[in-house]
Amino acid sequence: MSYNLLKGKRGIITGALDENSIAWKVAEKAHEQGATFVLTNAPIAMRMGEIKKLAEKTGSEIIPADATSVEDLTNLFTKSQEVLGGKIDFVLHSIGMSVNIRKNIPYVDSNYDFFQKGIDVSAMSFHKMLSVAYKMDAISEWGSVVALTYMAAQRTYPFYTDMADIKAMLESIARSFGYHYGLNKKVRINTVSQSPTRTTAGSGIKGFGDFFDYANAIAPLGNATADDCANYCITLFSDLTKMVTMQNLFHDGGYSTTGVSMEVMTKLGIE
Ligand SMILES: NC(=O)c1ccc[n+]([C@@H]2O[C@H](COP(=O)([O-])OP(=O)(O)OC[C@H]3O[C@@H](n4cnc5c(N)ncnc54)[C@H](O)[C@@H]3O)[C@@H](O)[C@H]2O)c1
Description:
This protein is α/β, with parallel strands linked by helices.
């Protein structure tokens, strides 16, 4: 349903790989709520056929950018402002990749080149994106930037390996940059900590199915879907959440504050 929450707003949406991607849903909902935006993804990761469908559906242009490249990001913010006709009001950072996870390497045996790559792609890219935008003064006052994260930044999930440390860094960047960007340009920066979600990145995690079911059995509302996550991101891009910044916001059906649920107790055979 459209409330025109983003009417007249211009955005940049990263990370829409296919229709399961959280970013894909955010793009659909941002379009529904009246925004115009640019879609971007890494040239090598981009499935052109897929993202073109989304671009057509939402009337968006695609500007490829590797989020680890300051040059690409500078081009992204320059061209996006040209295409959209002004400063950017919202940015979604929906980028995550760990080679250690992909190759099934246990945390204690982490390969450091892979670790470094994971940091660069999944956390440092956020700093680079913000720094490029800040120096170019490309985001309008009261603009909103959201990055997606996972609760392994706070609590241990053995199979999430190096990505746990990387997400902790991502969340810290939201606070650190959020201070400077808020003080100097009134731009707000938050992370949304989402439930396990069946996407390419999510399903790459070892034991994802069991882990998804476990979270679903703990959370009183069940796992939040990609669609639910997109709705939440839209509210954070809207003016209704104007004073929210430097926060890590759990979007997980109550999972993060539930110790144990009756469902899990019953499964364990406890009366
Ligand atoms: N799926 C989950 O269970 C879950 C839970 C919490 C948080 N998240 C986070 O949500 C975000 C989006 O992931 P998703 O689950 O939608 O999966 P996804 O695989 O659809 O999206 C990840 C995106 O990152 C992009 N990417 C990778 N390297 C890049 C680079 N160098 N430059 C630019 N883009 C690059 C990929 O092309 C892809 O589009 C990630 O940050 C992920 O960690 C996912």
